[in-house]
Amino acid sequence: MAELSNYLATRRKAILKAWSRAVNADAKQTTASSLTRAQFNDHIPDILDAFERRLRAGPVDEAGADGKTDGIKHGITRWQQGYRLHELMHEWGHLHMCLLVELDTFGASNPDFDRASLSAAGMQLAVMVNEAISESAEQYEHMQQVEAASHIDDLMSALTSVLEIERRRSTLIHQAVHDLGNDVNSFGMAANLLGEKEIAETERLEFTAILQHSVKSVSVLLGELMELARLEAGQERRQMSDFDAAALVAEVCDLNRGVARARNLFLQVDASPPLPVEGDPGKVRRVLQNLMGNALKYTEHGGVSVGCGEDKASWWMSVKDTGPGLQSGTDSPLLTEMKKATDIVAEVDAKPDAGNSGGSGETSSLRSVPVAKRSAKQPAGEGIGLSIVKRLCDLLDASLEVTSPAGQGTMFKVVFPKTY
Questions:
Q1: Does residue 59 belong to any structural domain of this protein?
Q2: Which of 51, 197, 321, 351 could link 295 by a cystine bridge, Cβ 3.0 to 4.6 Å?
Q3: How many CB atoms lie within 10 A of CB 213?
């Protein structure tokens, strides 16, 4: 059997390639295509080592125990990789067939090889595959049971989270209703005064302007609430295309120059095209417009600076104002959401070997971002627009960073993937 064992060892690379091709050609195998070669091979080379030791008449118990351990590990790995149980079974079947083909090829190329030994090798192969399937499936089932048991804790945690989400949402809606109420009160006051018979023309014009402003404010607020509702309901999808991010940033800034001039604010732009990226340009535009809109609306002196740039695997855009910054004061629903997101990223990055789990290995820049509360002096109403930004960032796999040294303004930085 040593000759057959050595043959299989020399054919190892070809066996694994044939197995990979067979799995990828199987319409019922949908998970394997997303794995790297090393991830796909997993513990199979070790299991083949154990089989070759059996063929060389090594200690059967030792080889069997060896294969059993690797079969268990393979089952755990496939569960982690998202395999369904039937995919795992089909995968083993394809490997079995590939090895049978190799045994037949060896027998045809070596007619003098003992037929009984070749038959015995086939039986050992069947035993090995059967043991591996049994151990992998048993461990897979065990992991599913563990996962199901953990759902009890997850459900309790989810219930707590839902209650907290509802509390935050109530705060956000309360703020929106407060803003809406202010504008509605303006409606009533202006309408009543316009109804007076003895009113000067100058006052009539003034009250008409108040009424028009209130109508516009209510329209904008209701539009933002509708947009936020669509995002929270999962009704928006990414519309991917290639575009020049720098040109998009410059265009949005040009559209906002009139607002800046009307408020006697400067608007500086640092965006030199081209910056070719893949993404959803419409939603990127909405993110930038919301950030710029808030910055221009709530900055009383100075102005707003907008920029964009790129790193190795990502690109970013930033909006910085010269306002008072985030200070201790009234709670803001948006900042609560951002603090939560920042804490989650910090928690993940703090885990050992977080950079070795895939991707670029880089950790998020959000870890050291100070996030505080908006000053009570700031006008209400910004929470809706910036909550929309957060939801859009979630949809675009983008991170949202907030930096705000006391008295030095606030900078929002959004980091997007270059490709999806």
A1: yes
A2: 321
A3: 13
Residue 332 has pLDDT above 70, yes or no: no
Q: What is the CATH number of the domain that holds 18?
A: 1.10.490.70
Beta-bridged to residue 306, according to DSSP, are 269, 319
| Containing structural domain, residue 192 | 167-232
Whole-number Cα distances in Å, 282 to 76, 257, 269, 279: 42, 20, 20, 9
CB-based contact 279:265 (threshold 8 Å): no
Q: What is the DSSP string of 76-134?
A: HHHHHTT--HHHHHHHHHHHHHHHHHHHHHHHHH-TTS-HHHHHHHHHHHHHHHHHHHH
Residue of 121, 98, 97 whose CA lies nearest to 12? 98
Q: Residue 178 is encoded by which pair of tokens?
A: 């407060």
pTM for this one? 0.46
Rounded Cα distance between 330 and 160, Å, is 24
CA distance 283 to 241: 12
Q: Are 334 and 383 in contact (CB under 8 A)?
A: yes
What are 309's strand-pairing partners? 316
Total domains present in the chain: 3
Q: What is the pLDDT of residues 277-328, one digit of tens each?
A: 999 999 999 899 989 988 998 888 999 999 999 988 889 999 999 977 655 4
